Amino acid sequence: MHPKKAILFVLALVLLCAGTASADRPAIPSGIRAPGSISPLRVKVSEVFLRNCAGGSCTIIGTLYLGDRIQIQETVREWVRVLNIDSGLEGWCKKSELSSQKIYKFARVRPSVLHFRSCGGMHCSIIGKLFKGRTMTVLVHGSSWTKVRLHTDKRIGWVATRYLVFYN
């Protein structure tokens, strides 16, 4: 075969393979990195059950916890097959339980007094007052409201996110 034809053949083969590889793989949703991404995703809720297949009725095979570093292996609709980078545990969970943002495990009250509420909203009843410096474990970190567990008495409630200082 002539060298120019061989180069064109190899180039066409490479382009053909590159085009079919992405068509065979499900699309990664916005805000979620592609499989094998350098920067790992993190679990954004207090705990996530890993399942043996993509579905809520599949068998639970393990648990991921808030802040665990994971890597996506495969995506099927709203489910992702993930690998826990630290433990090697692999399974399926909902992609809504993952975040590419840095996840904090703890928070501290910034203002002198902060209302501790029964749910995440101004309409929710105030179940306590937290004072400056009070520490807590973050269970769900939301943009407006954060669900927390107090360190001293283990009560669970919600506080306005903007009044917290987060740390690990």
List keywords for this structure.
168 residues, mainly beta, five-stranded antiparallel sheet, 1 helix, 14 strands
Query: How many β-strand runs?
Result: 14
How many angstroms does the end-to-end distance come to? 62 Å
Uncertain ranges: 15-38
Structural class: mainly beta
Strand order of the largest sheet: 6-5-4-1-7
Order of helices and strands: HEEEEEEEEEEEEEE
Query: Would you tell me the overall average pLDDT?
Result: 80
Biggest β-sheet description = 5 strands, antiparallel
- How many helical elements? 1
Strand content: 35-45%
Question: Helix share of residues?
Answer: 10-25%
What is the CA-based Rg, rounded?
22 Å
Overall shape: elongated
Descriptive overview:
This protein has about 170 residues and is mainly beta. Helices cover about 15% and strands about 45% of the residues. It is elongated and about 80 Å long. The termini are far apart.
Please render the helix and strand layout as text:
Blueprint: H1 3-24, E1 41-43, E2 47-51, E3 60-65, E4 69-76, E5 79-84, E6 90-94, E7 98-99, E8 106-109, E9 113-117, E10 126-131, E11 135-141, E12 145-150, E13 156-160, E14 164-167
Antiparallel strand pairs: 1-4, 1-7, 2-3, 4-5, 5-6, 8-11, 8-14, 9-10, 11-12, 12-13
